[in-house]
Structure prediction request, 181 residues.
Amino acid sequence: MNKKILLLPGLVAILLCSLPAFASNLGREKMKVVGVIAGDTLRVEWKGKEQTLILLGVNTPPAHWGPALLRRARYLKMDPHTLLKMGIEAKEFAESLIYPDGWVHVEFDWIKRDPQGRLMGYVYVREGMLNALLIENGYARARLSFPFPMRPKKDWILSEFPYLERKAKRGKRGLWKYGRF
Prediction:
């Protein structure tokens, strides 16, 4: 009986230490990343199906040659090859935070899918929120137009993401070394 009493504080300590890790993922879905399409777009396995996931609040250059890249290059009056190089850099930065583990936690906002049926969310990796890390390190711009009928759940991003973008731009971090994107 004395041994059981001695074990009890140890078990309580273990439970209390693991509580913050458990609580920090409440309301988040664990997903396996099966591919990174672009810095702001992932292929994930969720509920037994492979699906596309868009990172909310961020916009990176396209990482593949195609109409979207050409439209964006024309809009920015930029060489498409340079823009593609920037998109690949953003994709590689996202991959460096996601792999080798490949697991992420995703928190959805009010609406889980965009009109094209793609999942939309805030993605968490070991280092923090991937959405914010992309902006903070200069690999994404803040994109604050949301397809929601109301303000996002995380309405702090409306001020925080632009702040991180300005900071990265001033420091010429990531893609800002090229000037604009």
